[in-house]
Amino acid sequence: MDRERAREASRRSYRKHHEKNLERSRRYRAEYPEKHTLSVKRWRDTHPEAVKAIDRRRYQRDKEKRLAYTHQSFTYKGKHIHIDNNPRKGQCAKCGRKISDGEIKKTNIHHTEYIPSMPLAMTEELCVKCHNVNHEKKRDESGRFVQEVSVR
Question: What is the 3-state secondary structure (H, E, C) of 51-85?
Fold first, then answer.
């Protein structure tokens, strides 16, 4: 029971002094940026496991945000187009690897056929590796495209 009371007292003290401590920290960073940077580097060097844990939590926390805000626009035939909803599902149509499983970092939208009036028509979502393999099939030994994708 004493342990619980001590925890509660610690929480109250933290809440009471939190804003003041934040302000003190901000002032210190503003007045001594070099010292602060060195202090942070020193701490990161001496606490590698804590840094990994923080980075993991930050990555998981921001994962949904990254998925929601990335790929809201794309370039189509030299024009930058913004879209309201994300057409990507985060999974390669060829190999089936997923961003959410950590198997791949990003996907590309590949046009099998270009229709100028409908930029997202005739597309498939591919991982970078499959997208590169797909384009390699259309190049000759010198690296030039042999077969152009058809345009309607």
Answer: HHHHHHHHHHHHHHHHHHHCCCEEEECCEEEECCC
pTM over 0.85: no
Encoding tokens for residue 108? 């590309």
Question: What was the pLDDT predicted at 41?
Answer: 93
Q: What is the mean pLDDT of residues 124-150?
A: 72
Q: Token digits for 115?
A: 């229709």
Using DSSP bridges, classify how beta strands 123-127 and 79-82 pair: parallel, antiparallel or unpaired: unpaired
Q: What is the DSSP letter of 139?
A: B
Reduced DSSP (H G I as helix, E B as strand, rest coil) percent helix, strand, coil of the chain, to 5: 50, 15, 35
